[in-house]
Amino acid sequence: MKLKQALAIMLCVLLSFSFASCTGTKNSDETTTTAPVSTTEFKTDDKSFILSYTQSDSLDPFKAETLNNQILATLVFDSLFILDENFSAQYSIAVSHNYSSSTTLSVKIKQKTFSNGDNLTADDVVYSFNLAKNSPAYSNSLKAISYAYADSKDTVVFSLSYPNPYAHNLLTFPIALYGSCSSEYEFPIGSGRYKFEKQNSKIVLKACNNDGFKPHITTVNLLNVVSDESIDNAINIGNINFAFRDLSNGAATKMTCQTKAVQMNNLVYIGLNYNSQSITCNKFIRRAISLAVDRGVIAKSAYQNYASVATSVYNPVFELAPNTKIFEESANTLAAKQSIAQSGYAPEQLKLRLVVNKNTNRTAAAKLIKSQLEAAGFSVDYKEYSYKDYKQALKEHAFDIYIGETKLSNDMNFNTFLKKGGSTSYGIDNENSVCAESYKKYLSGELQLGDFILAFNDETPFIPVVYRKGMICYSKAMYGDMQGTYLNCFSNIQDWYF
Q1: Domain(s) of CATH 3.40.190.10: residues in the chain
Q2: Which of 78, 184, 374, 379 lies 20 to 30 angstroms, CA to CA, from 122?
Q3: DSSP of 155-176, one letter per residue?
Q4: What kind of architecture, by CATH, is found in domain 50-241+475-495?
Q5: What is the full DSSP assignment across 433-469?
Q6: Do the Cβ atoms of 304 and 368 come closer than 8 Å?
């Protein structure tokens, strides 16, 4: 019995060696390995993702008046350039650009097709530019460009209204198929990642299979939500999954969904009256006001950290800002008092009339500024107006200082302040302003940037305080790194999933 057991054991051992020799690695070039097969599938979703839109507003990007529909259009239409988080222009439809003169910009476009299969040409770009020039969303910024024409099938030439080294930053308007923004077409046609379609009598956005775009979200469903408050509620409770909020009404604290702050180009500033009857006609007083303001406190308290301190006249994320810093984040009350002493005004003359319109954030900022100025020795008469009365006070120059906010164009141009008749030039004497003249010469290339900054610092025609931020809001049921920016909210939508 023991012998039989021993023989059986030996037989098993021999079989085991025999099997090993058949599958062994005697010669490395005969080795074969099999990679594990992934069982993970690329899941698509045509039901979960819901965006708000305004049913009563147009889906035509050149007629849309609501932020709702203007944001939606960025999924359907491409532009020549897109701006990144630093407001730096990146090529989209454009492949190159060239300033052949200080007022002539040429842009070459790549080969691309619209969602209906038609080729995108320079004629489509010119058609779209002419519509954008008169649109609610783009008319203001495109005033800097006089006209455009197709130089060839793939080249568009833009004639600038004045020398402008960052004019290409303005070319973010949507490009639509020639003629598609008319009654002949059910929907305007773009070359973007999605296209408008009818599905069960409802309007949706369907993913386009172009440029390697392969999203998890293949259908964007639309829900009619009109008012700002209703949009906030809808994203908070999950009726919609994503929204951009510009926080113009200071609603940051109301949001309970996932959020991400994004830098906008909205400058909050102190306007100054150059009138000889106001003490702010004196540049030392203007400088004292700037020194007395604690920009960090205003960003944190008045804007709940949804603002960036303006230590430069330029947006703090813009490429020119680091080398043009002339303001401190904190107040320098001692230096403010020294500047007041240089002005020659007696303490009893240090009276300022501050006006602001009724707005949650700007009102809070104005009250803080009043307190900060009083700490430096000023006496401040605070006036809070309705928007209509506020605008009237500005037109009549019935102020010494005012708290304003303006959405600067993407080329970071200050002509609204530093050009006669500019929309934010209230109180500034641009006819006799050295700073305004320096800025004009900087744009034309006659002066260096540093010369303009020195002139601005010496004259202080207005006082930058903070640049406001907006907010991207999204459902807690959504996954994927939200990389959206102010003007490109859906930058990596292909990576989002539920």
Answers
A1: 50-241+475-495
A2: 184
A3: EEEEEESS--TTGGGG--S---
A4: 3-Layer(aba) Sandwich (3.40)
A5: -HHHHHHHHHHHTSS-HHHHHHHHHHH-SEEEEEEEE
A6: no
